[in-house]
Each structure stands twice: as structure tokens, then as C-alpha cells.
Design goal:
Family: Belongs to the LysR transcriptional regulatory family.
Distance between the termini: 49 Å
Protein name: LysR family transcriptional regulator
Keywords: DNA-binding, Transcription, Transcription regulation
Length: about 290
């Protein structure tokens, strides 16, 4: 049994097929198939059900998979420990950012981290909060900035990066002193797409108020929402900091108050690599 066989086993299980696993591992698909077949012969068990509907783990494969992941993690731990003893921070760190999380200066953070640790390869993905949480649990991501509108998941550790009120961005010449969720429903609404943390907080506030909100325009970042509102295309719901320094829109409080949080999340069940710990430390230094 060899480590690359275990790595291929995990890749096929997580990707749901040999072709996607081969692309992920940068090897030819027949090579992965041959190595998995060899592993099955060595174990005396069929690990995958190869049917016309796709590739699925057999019960034996389900039982073996956690041990394969643990073995690969242990090897990574050995390398990380050796690097720490040598005073090196290198390797890889995979991070995720929730869609619409532009109020966090992630480019600045990653740029400063890269300058400090040029030997670390950084992978960044942007996705909905639920997908990022799944990525953490599958060990695809080390850290993720995720939206939250309730209690944080029990299996994840979090640092609160941002906890701010939502406001309605009206064109500066025509804005009330405050606005309710029900009143927002009477306007052409501009909002982040479903899956963004701010959108989840808005939808939760609407559900609590018994109001159905149907945004007419959706865009992927709070500044862009404010730009659309400034052009008179509707009323945008954004985190309050997104309007700081703008005079082309007016920030109108929403009553009762609706709040949105962005957390920096990580797994509880496994320690972070030295690279991920270094990035976490730098991110924490920027949290006020």
C-alpha cells in the first residue's frame, strides 16, 4: 500500500468519479483506475461501485476512507512539524470567501501574507456559505470567511470578523428617516444573491416580519449594490460599512434592526497546518 493510492482513493471519493479525480491529481485517468484496482486487490475488498450511474463508495470503501484521510493528514503533519523545527512556513493554504463578502479586505490580507511567506501557495474560492462550510468539513478548505445569521455550527471554531447592522441605501435626494421590512417590499429592491451571508440575514428578517421580499436586481458585491441604488434603480440592502464615505446614497436604518455577521471559520477536529495558523494569526491581527 502506497500513499499515492490513498490519495487517489480520497480524490475519487470526493470528486465522485475517476475522470474528475485524475484532473484534480494531474495524472492520467487510466493511472488512477489502475492504482485503485491494485489497492482493492491488496485489501481484498471492492472499494467503489462502478455503475452506469457513476462511482460510489461501497460499505468497505466507506469504512476505509476515514483511515486513508487520517494517514494522509499524519504525513502532512510530519512534514509540517519538520518545517516548524526549521523555522519555515511553506506548503499550501486553501481559503474561502462568502459571496458578497467584499467588506472584508481579503486581497490586502492575502497580499501581506504572501509577502511574509512567499513559500506558501494560496488557493482561494468564492462560494455560498453552505458550500464553504461543506468545504471545511471535507478538508478542502483550511479557513473560510462565511456569513452567519444565527448560532455558529457546533463542529466549527469561529472568530467574529464583522457584526454590523444592515441598512437600506436610498438615492441621496429621496430617503426616509427609517424604513421597515414591510416598507422595503414596496420598493424596487436590490440585494445580494441567495447564498450570501447578508442575503441570508435579510431573508431571515423578512421571514420574522412575515414579509416576502423579491429583489428585482441582484449583484455580487455591496459596493455594486450601492452603485445601482445611486443610479435610481431601486433601494439596496447592504452592511452599513459598505456606505462609509459615500455621498451619492443615504444609509437609512432598517427597523427593527437586522444584523449580518461574517465569521472566520475553521475545523475543530484537526489542527491547522503551520501555513494556515500563520494566516489565521494575521487575519486575527486585523480583527478589531
Amino acid at each position: 500500500m502506497e500513499l499515492h493510492q490513498l490519495r487517489y482513493l480520497v480524490a475519487v471519493a470526493e470528486e465522485g468519479g475517476f475522470t474528475r479525480a485524475a484532473a484534480r491529481e494531474h495524472v492520467a485517468q487510466p493511472g488512477i483506475s489502475a492504482q485503485i484496482a491494485r489497492l482493492e486487490r491488496e485489501l481484498g475488498q471492492v472499494l467503489f461501485d462502478r455503475s452506469a450511474r457513476g462511482v460510489r463508495l461501497t460499505p468497505a470503501g466507506e469504512a476505509v476512507l476515514p483511515h486513508a484521510r487520517a494517514a494522509l493528514a499524519a504525513v502532512t503533519g510530519v512534514r509540517d512539524t519538520a518545517d516548524e523545527l526549521a523555522g519555515l512556513v511553506r506548503g499550501r493554504v486553501a481559503v474561502g470567501m462568502v459571496r458578497g463578502g467584499g467588506v472584508v479586505d481579503l486581497p490586502g490580507l492575502l497580499g501581506a501574507f504572501h509577502r511574509e511567506h512567499p513559500g506558501v501557495a494560496i488557493r482561494l474560492v468564492e462560494d455560498a456559505t453552505d458550500a464553504l462550510l461543506d468545504g471545511l468539513r471535507r478538508h478542502d478548505l483550511d479557513l473560510a470567511w462565511v456569513g452567519r445569521h444565527g448560532e455558529p455550527p457546533a463542529d466549527l471554531a469561529v472568530d467574529v470578523v464583522l457584526d454590523v447592522p444592515l441598512v437600506a441605501a436610498f438615492p441621496s435626494g429621496d430617503a426616509p428617516a427609517e424604513v421597515t421590512i414591510a416598507e422595503l417590499a414596496e420598493h424596487t429592491l436590490i440585494a445580494l444573491p441567495v447564498g450570501a451571508g447578508v442575503r441570508a440575514a435579510l431573508d431571515r428578517a423578512a421571514a420574522d416580519a412575515g414579509v416576502a421580499l423579491r429583489p428585482a436586481l441582484e449583484a455580487g458585491s455591496p459596493p455594486l449594490l450601492a452603485d445601482l441604488a445611486a443610479q435610481g434603480l431601486g433601494v439596496a440592502v447592504v452592511p452599513a460599512p459598505a456606505l462609509t464615505g459615500r455621498d451619492d446614497v443615504r444609509a437609512v436604518p432598517i427597523v427593527p434592526e437586522a444584523r449580518a455577521s461574517i465569521d472566520l471559520a475553521r475545523r475543530r477536529d484537526t489542527p491547522l497546518s503551520p501555513a494556515a495558523r500563520a494566516l489565521l494569526a494575521r487575519a486575527r491581527a486585523g480583527i478589531t
